[in-house]
Design goal:
This protein has 492 residues and is α+β, with helices and mostly antiparallel strands. The protein has 3 domains: 291 residues, no CATH class; 113 residues, no CATH class; 58 residues, Arc Repressor Mutant, subunit A (Orthogonal Bundle). It contains 16 helices and 16 strands. The chain has a 9-stranded mixed sheet. A 3-stranded antiparallel sheet has the order 5-4-15, with no helix packed on it. Helix 8 packs across helix 9, helix 8 packs parallel to helix 10 and helix 10 runs antiparallel to helix 11. The longest helix has 20 residues.
Length: 492
């Protein structure tokens, strides 16, 4: 039965089955040059300009391994809790495709760089560990670009600029049981790799690409079902949509008496469906054999530990420390560690402020909101961590109120001036002097006899109205606590 005539499974049928998902993630390393030659890896160059005899696969051209690519691959593997092999072997993975000029890809097969890692995720408050089978290095192929729809005007152009760029492939264990878990896993993976700065993980530029292996089985069954591979998922949203569709398609197929065929499928975001691309047999047909032009890669314990010592604190450890050290909620810690620059900005602010929790609220709320409105990143913030801390400290010391701070912050953002400079220049200091406040309070009491009578008659909620009138009369500069105290004293 073809997928075009197959209805998707309803929720009651889906509930009988358990999906089994494993992800293969290709990540482009952020080196300046390619993995086996000196050509640049810069994105957006004219087609076929960042090439040389080595990445063009010309006869006689020999690969030379990029040491920086190896170091970045080791960093990534350590960040993913993997065990680094002392000796790994590069191999030729043979297949023929227009954008693969050598006729083989240099990869790693039975002796990869790293194995046996894991990533911890949380979905709806439930924590889970997803195993990582291996992390191995390889070079990328070129890129085919297709034009036209009819046979008479259909053209394919090959751009080999990407050929030879350094990749790591991260293969998960089949531990993922839902599209939500897959989304969380990929999110954590991307965040970790960006934190250690081994890749930008920019999916629009192809720096992170994902393939998903999907099967279903009856709940409680121990044997895996027949899997399909959904290729080239280039956004988190498409990953989730493709998995949801493929899970439902397989359940409906089984329930209707059909069987799942092992094949490679593509996701069409326009229709929301996966479609068959090619059948895939059980046995690998890549004819792997050791790359004769590259010696085994040996990673000494000393080299590995030097790399480990140079790495930053990872997101999971940082989140836990922010909760412990600064008293943040887990959600706040998660937001503030979304990127390494954001985490560093917040930590500098927290260390300089007298109230780290208030500092977190200002960074997450006002600052990130203002940056988003202007289309800027945290690294482009016109407000420094020290200025953010100074604003928080002015509130804590009682020199300004929270309302005045809300008035001062936009001026800080637009001018780059410090909050104290703005406060003193524009006379925005909080009024706490009793004599000055008493005059305003007396005027408000005299101007609102009805509310005063209501308060004295037992309707104490009206006090909030009177406080508001004092704040309005003082242009928001009156100390709210002092105003409350004065009003209660005079009205009693």
């Amino acid at each position: 039965m073809s997928s075009s005539t197959l209805s998707l499974a309803p929720p009651e049928l889906l509930a009988k089955y358990e999906p089994v998902i494993g992800l293969e993630v290709h990540v482009q390393l952020a080196t300046r040059t390619k993995i086996f030659c000196g050509c640049p890896t810069s994105f957006g160059a004219p087609p076929n300009t960042n090439v040389c005899p080595t990445c063009l696969g010309l006869p006689g051209a020999l690969p030379v391994l990029n040491r920086r690519a190896v170091e970045m691959a080791i960093q990534a593997a350590l960040a993913l809790n993997c065990q680094i092999r002392e000796t790994s072997i590069f191999a030729r993975k043979n297949y023929f495709y227009p954008d693969l000029p050598k006729g083989y890809q240099i990869s790693q097969y039975d002796k990869p760089l790293a194995e046996h890692g894991y990533v911890d995720i949380s979905v709806d408050g439930v924590k889970k560990r997803i195993g990582i089978t291996r992390v191995h290095m390889e070079d990328d192929a070129g890129k085919s670009q297709h034009e036209g729809f009819r046979d008479s005007d259909r053209y394919t152009y090959v751009d080999l600029n990407r050929s030879g760029t350094p990749l790591i492939e991260i293969v998960s264990e089949p531990d993922i049981r839902s599209s939500e878990e897959a989304y969380a896993y990929l999110t954590e993976l991307k965040q970790v790799l960006q934190f250690v700065e081994v890749s930008t993980c920019d999916m629009e530029k192809g720096h992170l690409r994902c393939d998903a292996n999907v099967s279903v089985r009856l709940k409680g069954a121990s044997r895996f079902g027949t899997k399909t591979e959904v290729k080239n998922l280039n956004s988190f949203r498409f990953l989730k949509q493709a998995l949801d569709y493929e899970i439902s398609r397989q359940v409906a197929l089984i329930e209707s008496g059909g069987r799942v065929v092992q094949e490679t499928r593509l996701y069409n975001p326009d229709t929301g469906e996966t479609v068959g691309m090619r059948s895939k047999e059980e046995a690998h047909d890549y004819r792997y054999f050791p790359e004769p032009d590259l010696v085994p890669l040996r990673v000494s314990e000393a080299w590995k530990e030097r790399i480990r010592a140079s790495m930053p604190e990872l997101p999971s450890a940082l989140r836990a420390r922010f909760v412990e050290q600064y008293g943040l909620r887990e959600y706040d810690a998660q937001v503030l560690t979304l990127t390494r620059p954001l985490a560093e900005f917040y930590e500098k602010t927290a260390k300089a402020s007298k109230d780290p929790k208030a500092a977190a609220n200002w960074v997450m709320g006002d600052l990130l909101g203002a940056l988003k409105a202007e289309g800027k990143e945290i690294t482009e913030s016109p407000v420094s961590p020290e200025q953010m801390a100074e604003l928080v400290n002015l509130i804590v010391s009682g020199e300004i109120s929270g309302k005045l701070a809300k008035e001062i912050f936009p001026k800080m953002f637009s001018s780059g001036d410090s909050p104290r400079t703005i406060m003193e220049r524009e006379g925005l200091k909080q009024i706490s002097d009793t004599a000055a406040l008493e005059k305003i309070v007396d005027e408000v009491i005299a101007a609102n006899p009805k509310q005063v009578e209501q308060y004295r008659g037992g309707k104490t909620a009206v006090l909030g109205f009177l406080v508001g009138q004092v704040m309005k009369a003082s242009r928001g500069q009156a100390n709210p606590a002092a105003v409350n105290q004065l009003l209660k004293a005079k009205l009693s």
